[in-house]
Amino acid sequence: MNPFGYALRRLLGVIPTFLLIVAAAFFLMRAAPGGPFDDERSLPPEIEANLQSAYGLDQPVPVQFARYLAGLARGDLGPSFRMKDFTVAELIGRGLPVTFGIGAGALVLALGLGIPLGLLAALRQNGWADHAVMSVALAGIAVPNFVVAPVLALMFGLYLGWLPVAGWEAGSLRHMVLPVVTLALPLVAYLARLTRGSLLEVLQSPFIRTARAKGLAPAVILRRHALKPALLPVVSFLGPAAAALLTGSLVVEQVFGLPGVGRYFVQGAINRDYTLVMGMVIFYASLILLLNLLVDLAYGWLDPRIRQE
Questions:
Q1: What is the distance between the alpha carbons of residues 159 and 173, in angstroms, rounded to a whole number?
Q2: pLDDT band at 169 (very low <50, low <70, confident <90, very high)
């Protein structure tokens, strides 16, 4: 199968998955007890009925779902039920630059550190570099973000006074350092361990032994023969990991006072803001499916055998 056909087949497989996620989220939200106007019981019944009618909540759930899909096909995520005068798209658009900037910075930092450290550990197996990298990686995996974030804020913000501990200023690198590092550290640890384990497995493969028997230099073997197959598990992991970083972390946003999109998901769930929660689910799902699609295409590039029938 040619690369275009492979990409088209993967893309067509994403569409039913996306529709299934939208349907599941919509009906689960409607099945949950409570509604967006439950805390306004002081209103007269006729006014509450008017609110239900204005937002279409007096219609049967299947009818509501059909109307929502029609709006979604036009790119309309609807208005927020609880944040007056704002559409869901506007709320996501307000927080997306902050969340995406922090997540992209963390992803670049993680890739720039995790993969080289994993390669170093594999090439120096059982040496001091290997033990040092794996010890640091184990600590990075074991310590959660909600512990790392306050520690970094105390150390570099309060005690040393080098960096701000909270708040956000557009274009200010100083405000990005601590959130980016906090988000990147666990991913650096996972990437280092994955890269090390995968490269060690590849180096024991028969085709690597054949390359060594031919007298090829170790650097040539690594670059031409071992690196691509060793990166397959790493690329597979990067899909959901990159989505998690690019959509932000609620803990990191709360600790550092970032005006990102993560807070809207929790606020919408607490307030039973159906359209806001649906918008966040669609946003997250779209990003995860897109990144997983890119992972599939990267798989086909790294190993052409995957494109075959």
A1: 20
A2: confident
Alpha-carbon distances, residue 205 vs 79, 139, 212 (angstroms): 56, 30, 11
What gap in Å lies between CA 232 and CA 201, rounded to an integer? 12
Alpha helices in the chain, H assignment, sequence order: 3-31, 45-54, 61-73, 88-123, 128-142, 145-152, 174-203, 206-213, 218-221, 227-230, 232-246, 250-256, 262-271, 274-302
Q: What angle (nearest 5°) sits at the alpha carbon of residue 218, between those of residues 212 and 219?
A: 140
Task: Give the whole-angstrom CA distance, residue 108 versus residue 120.
Answer: 19
pTM score of the predicted model: 0.73
Query: pLDDT by residue (tens digit) across 71-93?
Result: 888 887 877 777 777 788 888 88
User: For the chain, what are the domain ranges?
Assistant: 99-269
Picking from 242, 265, 291, 305, the residue whose alpha carbon sits closest to that of residue 10 is 291
Instruction: Residues 99-269: name the CATH superfamily.
Output: MetI-like (1.10.3720.10)
